[in-house]
Each structure stands twice: as C-alpha cells, then as structure tokens.
C-alpha cells in the first residue's frame, strides 16, 4: 500500500500548517557546506518544481566558486505560485529600474493588502493635516521598519507592522491620529502607552494602537550605546534613519518603507542587494554587532534557516571568537534562548536550524552543562543531534504524504538542506553522494510503514524536534554534589541521599537551560525515557507475537502520544546506522524498519490504536455492589483486572465481565490477587 495514504486525515492539517510539517517550504533546498569559511547554498533542481523558478548565479568575491542563489522558492500551490510570480516581477523591477550597488532609495511597487493600504493612506492624511496646521515646520516622516519590509519584498504577508517616527514621540503622534479621526467621526478606541523602562530595555517610550483592527506599534528612530556586560543598551537616544538602520541585526532587516515618499530606503546600501542575492550580513562589523547583543547570533541563524540565505564569512568568523561565545553565555537570559529556539522549531526548516546551531559550536552554550553537578554517565555529542534530526525529518516527511508530493523529494532535498557544515567539503562530497544512494534505499523501506498512523498536530511535530535536541542527554545522569555533601552528614538520610545523587539530566536541561514549560519538558523527558522500553517490546514482538492484553497494557502505559514515542524510538534505532553504514550493511536498517512495521501493524490489527482512551466497563459502585465490599485500595486492583479482561475480550459485554470479576479471588490487603 502506498505511503501517501498513511494519513487519511492529514491533508487539512498540512494545508493549514504545511511549512511546519514539511522539511522546508522551498522547492529547491539549500546545501550548506563550508568552503573557505563560507556557507554556500548549492541548488538541487527538481523538474517537478521547475515552474516559476527564478535562479541567478552570483559571484562570491571572497572565494573562487560560484554559488547558486534561489530568488523565489515557495511551495507550488496556486496561491504561492501567484506569490512567486509577484516576487519575480518585484525583484526584476528592482534590478531593472534601480541601480543596485551603493543605492539608498528604491522605487518599488510593494503589493499592499487592503488593510495595509488603508493604514498608509490614513497616516498620509494625518501627516498632511499636521503640515497644514504648521506649514513652517518640516513634515513628520513615517517609516515602516523591520521584518515587514523584508517579507513584503519577498512576497510574504506580515501582520507585524512597526512605524518609526522621526520628530515626534509615539504617543504624541497617536494622539494626533485620534484627533484627526475624531474630526472624521471615528473613534480610535484607546492608545496604549509604554513608558521608558531601562531595566527592561525600554529606553524610549512607545505607543500601540489599533488601526483597522491591526495593532500598530509607533516607535522612534533611535541610536544605541552598549556596555560590555549587558545586551541591554545603557543609552538610547533619538537617531537618524541611518543610525537606526545600522543598529539592526541584519541588512535585510534594516530596510525601511517611507510612507511619505512611497520609497524603499536602504541606508546600509546592502539590504536590497543581500535580499536579492540571499545573504545574511550584519550592517556593522559582525564582531561589533554580536558584542553589543549576542542574541543576534541566534536570530540570524533563524533567518538563515527560514529563508535559506547564505551566511557571510564575517559572521562565521565572529561566532567562532571565544569572546563572543563568552558574551553569549553571560549576557543572554535562558528565557531568550528558549524563545528563539521555539521560533526555529516552529519554522519552515527546523533541521537546518538545528544543524547550524550544532555545526557553529553553539549547542553546548544553549543546552548548557549542569552547574554544581558531576555527570556520572557519558554525555552524547551534537553530531548525534544532527543525525537524529535528519532521520526524524525523513520519517515525518514520509509519514505526512500527499497525492501531489514526491516522497523521495522530501528525503533527498532534506539531505541537501541540512548537509553537514565542514571545512573539508571536497572530502565530504563522495561520502554525501554515497549516503544519497543509501537514503533512497531506506526510503523504499519507509514507504511500507503501516498505513493508518494517526495525524500529527503541529504541537506534536514541535515536541518531536525538541526531543531531537535533547537526545545527547538520553543516558546522562548527574549527582547533586551539594545535596550529597549535606546528606552525608547524617546516616538517617541515606535513602534520601541516594535518591538525590542519581538524577536524569533531561528534566534539568529542558527547564533550566532553555526554560521550556513544565508540560513540554515532561513530554520530551517521557519520549526519551520510553525509548528503551519500546525497543524491548518491539524486540519481543519479533520473538513471540504479543497477545492483545500485553500489547494493550503497553499502549495504555505510553498514553495518547504512543505513536510519537514509536517515531522517536525508530529514529533512535536508525541513527547509528545512518552515517557509518556501508552499502553491503544496509540489511540492518532495513530489518529495523521491518520490525517497527510489524509492531505498528500488530497494534492496528488488534484494534488497540485508541485503547488508551478505553474506560472500565464497570464503575466503582457496580464493583462494590457486585462483590459486596467496601471502597478501599483493593478497588484499584479490581478495576485494573476489569481493563485487562476488556483487552482480552474486545467483544465482551458487561454481564460477562461481571461473571469474570465475581469468579476472581479478592485481592489481599497488600493489593495482590489471591
């Protein structure tokens, strides 16, 4: 049976959140490899995705090779095809009607939606009314800043609109909007003023209000100064547009749309060229940018993986600098790490984000070692994370099939998009080609996964990728040295001391290193802790076909996310076989996949896929009346026996169950059946 029919009800979900479910939104994926300290994108063409692609080759000045840049890469459904056509025309217009090099102002016809047009027209009317009231004063200039401009130029919709003002405070300008609308007989509702608060990195007041049901932030153009010990500026003043542009994290995020003049402004003179060429670059030297705010490193990795853009040498070299890494450790709160990480995992290519984090030496910083603890088992390494994430991605790409999707495309392209970053790329080419041929072999086996696996929600996918990041901690326990020293003083606390010595590191890392929620941390820990048990059960099923009761009790133990646990365990078993295997050894991964196919098929053949929801056919009152007993601890054992009977007798009825329970010997006081 074809795998594309595995998830009969996944289509609605995939349409709603396809960018999350598939390895990348891009039809042509990017192969990241390090040549002469450059991360380059090598395009893998797919005939099936050839329509509407715009590709240009751009010479990299710092090296001797040509890298292929993708100017338009969106999923080829009707809506996105229109988006690609628009983007092509837009980029063509930029190159045709504007001088790209050393240019600040661009005449570009941005495609506004209806609400955006209304907002801009209203703001122009307010500017005009201010000019009429005080004709001697220079007009207020308004600019849309930040990611909105970048996204609109790339053909994406963006609901996050920030407007920068040059000569007026945000709240003051909002009041002017309110006055203007009042004259028109319209109520602005309310203006939310955010006062300056240096302790929380709010040095200049901002104002937020709703225009046409959209929340708009009004900010001021600003200039910032930093000290060595904090990413929070110690001084923020009103700035010029150029100063504001240069303080931003990337040139592609430093583009402004001038509402007054209807122009795109690129004060760094690199934003538009970098957007066209697909480059991530900092406006100022990268070392200076990261020294002031090291969190920008993580943000730029997120943008690189989201858009599949090239990261320039200056950034790569600065990330390697020990001083920058130390600043990243000391200046950034764990909460901010977690927030950026979550955005990456929810993004279009979580595997590429994960690989960039690992290959750029940031894994140990983000998932920091446990302080004041001694590890008592060997810690894995970040290469395990990369291998696990790749295999997980291929499994998910295969499971979440569609009639229009080439499953081989996902596996092969995912391999391209997240290939390892290595200084010796020439040495890697042969091994990568070897791996590609083996991937197809694995894919043929994955195509036979049992065709009734339940759909995975976007939250499930997110948790699975978060789990891949914690795989190195699977076999890591730690000792609480302080607690050990305290409890060693008293022999009475020996039992408690032993309990505090050996603890799982997963829970600590999820909650302390990246500040995941308790629910997320518990789920990740549970998925990893289930691996060994599932491997054992899958192995047992090969030796002796498990009976319905044993299989059902196991699924109930795993709970509603049992399929996620099986997916994680399958990826874990395949992980050591992936990069190390030779062609003649592929029988082993093939055998692993076959075992899991059999296990999943057994679950469905027995009708146990939803047995975790099954309630006892007899309730407590019925048992008390039937056996003439009092409520107590034995009730739990009796109801457990009811569930076991139901699993053994899926077609049984209540009367048959009553007869079975009545004939059972009552549990003893220790809870065991006599």
From TrEMBL:
The keyword Transferase applies. One of its GO terms (molecular function) is ATP:3'-cytidine-cytidine-tRNA adenylyltransferase activity. Pfam families: PolyA_pol, PolyA_pol_RNAbd. Residues 482-501 are annotated as: Disordered. GO terms for cellular component: mitochondrion. Belongs to the tRNA nucleotidyltransferase/poly(A) polymerase family. This is Poly A polymerase head domain-containing protein. It comes from Diversispora epigaea.
């Amino acid at each position: 049976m074809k795998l594309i029919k595995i998830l009969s009800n996944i289509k609605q979900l995939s349409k709603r959140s396809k960018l999350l479910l598939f390895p990348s939104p891009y039809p042509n994926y990017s192969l990241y490899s390090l040549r002469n300290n450059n991360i380059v994108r090598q395009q893998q063409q797919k005939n099936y995705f050839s329509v509407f692609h715009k590709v240009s080759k751009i010479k990299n000045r710092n090296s001797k090779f040509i890298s292929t840049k993708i100017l338009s890469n969106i999923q080829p459904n009707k809506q996105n095809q229109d988006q690609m056509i628009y983007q092509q025309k837009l980029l063509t217009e930029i190159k045709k009607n504007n001088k790209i090099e050393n240019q600040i102002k661009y005449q570009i016809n941005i495609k506004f939606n209806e609400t955006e047009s209304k907002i801009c027209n209203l703001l122009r009317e307010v500017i005009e009314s201010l000019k009429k009231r005080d004709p001697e004063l220079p007009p207020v200039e308004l600019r849309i800043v930040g990611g909105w401009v970048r996204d609109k130029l790339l053909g994406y919709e963006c609901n996050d609109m920030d407007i920068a003002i040059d000569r007026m405070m945000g709240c003051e300008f909002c009041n002017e909007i309110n006055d203007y609308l009042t004259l028109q007989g319209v109520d602005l509702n309310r203006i939310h003023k955010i006062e300056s608060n240096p302790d929380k990195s709010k040095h200049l007041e901002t104002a937020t209000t709703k225009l046409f049901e959209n929340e708009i932030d009004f900010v001021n153009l600003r200039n910032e100064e930093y000290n060595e010990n904090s990413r929070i500026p110690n001084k923020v003043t009103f700035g010029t547009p150029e100063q504001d542009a240069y303080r931003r994290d990337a040139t592609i995020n430093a583009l402004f749309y001038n509402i007054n003049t209807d122009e795109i402004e690129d004060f760094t003179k690199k934003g538009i060229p970098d957007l066209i060429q697909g480059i991530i670059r900092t406006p100022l030297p990268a070392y200076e940018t990261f020294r002031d705010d090291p969190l920008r490193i993580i943000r730029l990795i997120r943008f690189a993986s989201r858009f599949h853009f090239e990261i320039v040498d200056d950034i790569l070299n600065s990330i390697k600098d020990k001083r920058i890494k130390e600043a990243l450790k000391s200046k950034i709160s764990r909460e901010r790490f977690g927030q950026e990480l979550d955005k990456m995992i929810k993004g279009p290519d979580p595997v590429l984000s994960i690989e960039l984090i690992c290959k750029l030496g940031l894994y140990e910083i983000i998932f920091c070692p446990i302080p004041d603890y001694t590890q008592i088992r060997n810690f894995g390494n970040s290469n395990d994370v990369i291998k696990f994430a790749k295999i997980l991605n291929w499994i998910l790409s295969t499971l979440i099939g569609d009639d229009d999707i080439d499953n081989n495309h996902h596996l092969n392209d995912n391999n391209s998009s997240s290939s390892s970053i290595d200084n010796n790329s020439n040495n890697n080419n042969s091994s990568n080609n070897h791996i590609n041929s083996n991937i197809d072999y694995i894919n043929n086996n994955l195509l036979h996964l049992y065709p009734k696996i339940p759909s995975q929600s976007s939250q499930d996918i997110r948790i699975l990728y978060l789990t891949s990041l914690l795989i190195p901690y699977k076999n890591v326990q730690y000792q609480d040295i302080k607690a050990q020293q305290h409890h060693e003083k008293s022999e009475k606390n020996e039992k408690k001391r032993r309990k505090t010595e050996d603890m799982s590191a997963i829970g600590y890392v999820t909650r302390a290193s990246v500040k995941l929620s308790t629910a997320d941390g518990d789920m990740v820990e549970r998925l990893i802790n289930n691996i060994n048990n599932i491997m054992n059960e899958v192995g047992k099923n090969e030796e002796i076909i498990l009976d319905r009761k044993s299989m059902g009790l196991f699924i109930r133990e795993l709970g509603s996310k049992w399929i996620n646990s099986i997916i994680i365990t399958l990826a874990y078993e395949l992980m050591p076989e992936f990069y190390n295997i030779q062609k003649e050894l592929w029988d082993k991964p093939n055998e692993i996949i076959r075992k899991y196919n059999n296990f999943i098929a057994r679950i469905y053949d027995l009708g146990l896929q939803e047995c975790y929801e099954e309630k006892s056919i007899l309730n407590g009152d019925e048992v008390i009346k039937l056996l003439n007993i009092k409520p107590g601890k034995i009730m739990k054992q009796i109801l457990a026996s009811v569930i076991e009977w139901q699993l053994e007798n899926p077609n049984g009825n209540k009367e048959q169950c009553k007869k079975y329970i009545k004939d059972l010997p009552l549990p003893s006081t220790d809870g065991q059946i006599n």
